[in-house]
Automatic annotation (TrEMBL):
Gene3D superfamilies: 3.40.50.2300
Keyword tags: DNA-binding, Phosphoprotein
UniProt protein name: DNA-binding response regulator
Organism expressing this protein natively: Lentzea flava
Domain Response regulatory: 4-119
Residues modified to 4-aspartylphosphate: 54
């Protein structure tokens, strides 16, 4: 199925250029917006599969828009495309509900892949940013919060969860662990049920929030 995309950026030339490039690659660009308020209003009207979101949008930021869109449109995923790779910007976007984060230096092919994977439910980050976010949440998770009880996952479920948090697709995880694609999906579904989550984006966010190690374990 064709992926519907909305492009949000305050620079008209950049916004229209990205929209044109995506349309030429086969995406259905259903709308564009130049500010956060318009982005939220239009997104609620057109309900795109993916919102490609800039952060620097004026009085209301892209983080504000992301929070509102993901809160009201649970089926719409937000992929941030920003010139900033600053730690705080990445962290705030993820906390607001963004499914991924790319810097604007990404190539056209990287952008196409990221939008496609975001629409499929994957968490996508520019190389290096996933580890940055994982490290921050690991430090946060180490602080006492009064709740020690956590759902019990098997070693394999934990291993799959680590790789989901790193942004790998189910097929890539299967290849990495030398198991079938179906087995990966079974582990993902089992983990979702145990954690009472709904999709892979929430699953990746859980892994980040609980500071799971991003380093893959050696296969025995």
């Amino acid at each position: 199925m064709t992926v519907s995309v909305m492009v949000v950026d305050d620079h008209p030339m950049w916004r229209e250029g990205v929209a044109r490039d995506l349309a030429e690659r086969g995406f259905e660009v259903v709308a564009t917006a130049g500010d956060a308020a318009s982005a939220v209003r239009i997104a609620k009207a057109v309900r795109p599969d993916v919102v490609l979101m800039d952060l620097n949008l004026g009085e209301l930021s892209g983080v504000d828009a992301t929070l509102l869109i993901t809160g009201e449109l649970p089926e719409t995923r937000v992929l941030v495309l920003s010139a900033s790779g600053e730690h705080d910007d990445v962290l705030q976007a993820v906390k607001a509900g963004a499914s991924g984060y790319l810097v604007k230096s990404a190539s056209a092919d990287e952008l196409v892949e990221a939008v496609t994977r975001t629409a499929a439910g994957d968490a996508v980050f520019t190389a290096g940013l996933a580890g940055l976010v994982l490290g921050e949440y690991r430090r946060m998770a180490a602080a006492p919060d009064g709740s020690d009880e956590k759902p019990q996952l098997t070693d394999r479920e934990t291993e799959v969860l680590r790789l989901v948090a790193k942004g790998l697709t189910a097929r890539q995880i299967a290849n990495r662990l030398v198991i079938s694609h179906r087995t990966v999906e079974n582990h993902v579904q089992s983990t979702l049920r145990k954690l009472q989550l709904h999709n892979r984006v929430e699953l990746a966010r859980y892994a980040i929030e609980h500071g799971l190690d991003s380093e893959p374990e050696a296969e025995k």
